[in-house]
Write a structure and sequence with these properties.
The protein is an alpha/beta fold. The chain is built from 15 helices and 14 strands. The protein has two domains: about 200 residues, P-loop containing nucleotide triphosphate hydrolases (Rossmann fold); about 210 residues, P-loop containing nucleotide triphosphate hydrolases (Rossmann fold). It is about 35% helix and about 20% strand. The strands form three sheets. Strands 2-3-4-1-5-6 form a six-stranded mixed β-sheet, sandwiched between helices. It starts with 12 loop residues before the first strand and ends in an 11-residue tail after the last strand.
């Protein structure tokens, strides 16, 4: 991000837009005072919050990041929400009042003692928001706070943020690719240009209506602009690859979803949807052979197993590489090397493919997913949307028969979303299969041949 001149007045509610990689998250981190020192990057110009450097405004700014895992610090829900209040010296009784208010506000209906390790990605997102709101900051910064939430949760979190802003008069800056949900809350839209500076700035209706074409071309999700789904050839299925019967999935013998019956067919896309906490990500890990079932049966057919045996969790790493490729909900969990280019070469090299063939495939993926200008960058320095595209590309590089993707379109602008969906559609048309955990209705409409909906389990009553 460069050449940015921007003033946000007290009490404004700003929706910050821009293409993936335009610098939206970097700006929020700067405003929160968490960008690090000179040894962690280059900075020019001046950035102030209430007339002072952000690092000096302890407790004045609340930040919710794209990755909720990076903000979970304590083992229990209540303690985690209280952490920020305790650090800025809020009295104990007032702290716990704020904890309960914040948990109610974000719709995280769990006891204070609930283990944070047992939260889904979407629940962790609500927890991070509750922790920020409990500090009652004057400036609230939200980096795609609803990206991993179910539709009901999106509205709950949006309304919670609106209530807090209304009650406290806090200034709000929210980064989101999906625009329409936040329009009832904000009074200003700022669009960052990919090459630096501001592409558009003004009242929401002025920016989104009058500059519709310009913003669409830049990759902004403009309400009312419908993306054309990719043209599908729909290859003929040769039968099932995976079959689940009476399947229960979970961790350490504790089921989070049960009584699951499904079939993953060859050359088809299966979408797994449902509310946060229903066990979608756990099911994905189980189907991918990375987590043993709690009970029931999951069997790979000969078409997928190809001699490796019928139980995916017993396959060796090398056997998994060409059979099942997995994209985790948190893309950073699968990065292994210091550069984007090296990351893409890991799988093919492990399979012993010739160097020239590996280089050709890496170049193709870099260009197709708009990562070529980042080939030498460290994967951990990419934006959230870029990390997601890289995580998908690392799996595609090994050309597995089945792709298991957890929120594959998270953090994508309209242009990169369309390109990613088109790439997956082409792979399915070539005869590969996709299982995708997603809250993205447009993705389901564009690609899903079948849909499995998991229901949220009933949580036992418990006092906070």
């Amino acid at each position: 991000m460069s050449d940015l001149d921007l003033v946000v007045e007290p009490g404004e509610r700003v929706l910050l837009l821009g293409a993936s990689g335009a610098g939206k998250s970097t700006l929020l981190a700067g405003l929160a005072g968490v960008l690090g020192g000179d040894d962690e990057g280059d900075a020019r110009g001046e950035l102030l919050v209430d007339g002072r450097p952000p690092a000096e405004q302890r407790g004045r700014v609340g930040l919710v990041l794209q990755d909720p895992d990076s903000q979970v610090v304590l083992a229990r829900v209540g303690d985690d929400v209280a952490f920020g209040c305790e650090n800025i010296g809020v009295p104990r009784d007032e702290t716990w009042r704020r904890v309960d208010d914040a948990l109610d506000a974000v719709g995280l209906d769990l006891p204070r003692s609930w283990p944070t390790a047992q939260l889904s990605g979407g629940q962790k997102q609500r927890l991070a928001l509750a922790g920020a709101l409990a500090m009652r900051p004057g400036l609230v910064l939200l980096d795609e706070p609803t990206a991993n939430l179910d539709p009901e949760g999106v509205v709950e979190v949006r309304d919670a943020v609106a209530r807090v802003a209304e009650r406290t008069g806090a200034t709000l800056v929210v980064v989101e690719h999906r625009v329409s949900v936040w329009l009832p809350v904000v009074d200003r839209v700022v669009v960052l240009a990919a090459g630096g500076g501001v592409l558009a700035d003004g009242a929401p209706e002025e920016v989104l209506d009058r500059q519709r074409g310009r913003l669409t071309e830049a990759g902004v999700w403009v309400p009312g602009v419908v993306l054309e789904p990719p043209v599908r050839r729909r290859a003929s299925s040769r039968g099932p690859l995976l079959e689940a019967s009476g399947l229960a999935v979970g961790h350490r013998g504790r089921a989070v979803a049960s009584d699951i019956d499904l079939v993953v067919h060859d050359a088809r896309t299966l979408a797994v949807t449902g509310p946060n906490g229903a066990g979608k990500s756990t099911l994905a890990l189980t189907l991918a052979g990375l987590l043993a079932p709690v009970s029931g049966e999951l069997r790979a057919t000969d078409e997928l197993a190809a001699g490796a045996g019928a139980v995916p969790v017993r396959w060796r790493s090398r056997e998994l590489l060409t059979r099942v490729g997995t994209v985790f909900q948190d893309p950073e969990h699968q990065f292994l090397t210091p550069t984007v280019r090296r990351e893409l070469a890991v799988g093919p090299e492990a399979l012993g493919e010739p160097a020239a063939q590996v280089a050709e495939r890496v170049d193709e993926l870099l260009a197709r997913l708009r990562l070529d200008h980042l080939a030498g960058a460290n994967p951990f320095t990419l934006s959230g949307g870029e990390k997601r595209r890289l995580s998908v590309a690392t799996v595609l590089a090994s050309r597995p028969r089945l792709l298991v993707l957890d929120e594959p379109t998270f953090g994508q602008d309209a242009r990169t979303w369309r390109e990613l969906v088109a790439l997956l559609a082409a792979l399915v048309d070539e005869g590969r299969s996709v299982v995708a955990v997603t809250h993205d209705a447009e993705f389901v409409d564009a690609l899903a041949d079948e849909v499995v909906v998991l229901e949220r389990p009933v949580v036992a009553e418990g006092s906070r």
